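Title: Prediction job returns without error message
Component: structure pipeline
Severity: low
Priority: P3
Assignee: unassigned

Description:
Job completed but the reporter wants confirmation the result is attached to the right record. Sequence as submitted:
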Amino acid sequence: MNKSLGISFSASHICFTELSSESGNIRLDNAEAVSIDFDFEDSFFKHKSSQKDLNSISGEIQNYCTRRGIHGTDIALTIGTSQAFLITLPFDYSEGKQSLNSKIYWELSNYYPDNYSDFVINTYRLNSILPCKDSDEFLVIAVQKNTLEFVRRIFKICNLNLALVDIDHFAAEHTLRKNYPENIAGKNALIVGLRKGRVDYGYLCDRKYKSYVYSRYNSEPEFNLSLVRKINSLLQSGQLPGVETIYIYGDEIKTDTIEAVGKIEGPEIVLVNPFESISASEHFLKNEIFRKSSYMFTPSFGGALRLLS
């Protein structure tokens, strides 16, 4: 039996999701969320040398692992999109990888002229339809090395094997593609991540990632109105054609937010339950409070699932 533990850092919460796999069957072993006096939307690199913060975060993780008897299990961590620099670039891929890398670093130097080389970079090809046959758009995901160093120090204190670090929005997308294949196969969907001060939008076309954008907000009272306006703008702009379902996950989603989004004409609105299609103990299946907040575990579930793939 293979086991994995997904951990997500979001707002002021640490979410834990334990999965096991046997003969291809995925099972939820445990899921918990704890609150902590730390803002995970704040830039990690500013806290790299703060022993207080390192001890506080690692202490919560150690307490959970000790209580659950976790030793030697691979860990997948998801961190917020606020910890990354994300940009979409058109590129003629016939020019080769070196040319793509040069273009990426040139873009980074425009935003971070003093430390553009201090990033770890990953790319997603977006399978867009562009005028030139050898061209496509790439989503660039760049994370500062100091951000990753902060994370590594936490898990070094915990003496745990950190096997994977992912961005929460793309771990959430992995949850949809792997756990709900029949719901998105051959269909167009929008996955919306709600978090403090920021909303992320990912467009999936027949399970393929086609587009990513995000928006920011500063006023909590205006959040629902801003969210609905942004989604309507995206749907009506032609950028995201034929969206049939909007999947929502995030951190402490309020009922009035779901009600506001539910008034958008056209797409079905689904609050993600990452555990809906896998086996679990009756403790989870019959726990209505847990089920109502299961969307919080979408990224940590995706991370844990990726380790079992």
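Comment from assignee: result matches the submitted record. The longest strand covers residues 25-35.
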